[in-house]
Amino acid sequence: DESLKEKLKKFRFRKETNNFIVYSYKYIHADGRVSYPLCFIFSSPMGCKPEQQMMYAGSKNRLVQAAELTKVFETRNADDLTEEWLKNQLAFFR
């Protein structure tokens, strides 16, 4: 659906809100292999309420374990969430 694609392109997280993201990404390795890692990204920007940070941090580990996610990344700045950032994070797992 084209309207959904347009909405997703324009979507932005609120700057001072914690977020969990589970994202399947097409990753092309240096040797040409293609994989589709399921990435868990936790965004906890500066300026979030401390009680909200504690709530999200406490539930993060349970969620990661229950979903059996192995690619877990964190950022303090939602503006860092770019494709380049994700590629750099995934490069560690070769």
From TrEMBL:
Organism per entry: Amphiprion ocellaris
One Gene Ontology term, aspect cellular component: cortical actin cytoskeleton
Matching SUPFAM superfamilies: Actin depolymerizing proteins
Protein name, as recorded: Glia maturation factor
Keywords: Growth factor
Domain ADF-H: 1-91
GO BP field: actin filament debranching; negative regulation of Arp2/3 complex-mediated actin nucleation
Gene Ontology molecular function, alphabetical: actin binding; Arp2/3 complex binding; growth factor activity
The family this protein is said to belong to: Belongs to the actin-binding proteins ADF family. GMF subfamily.
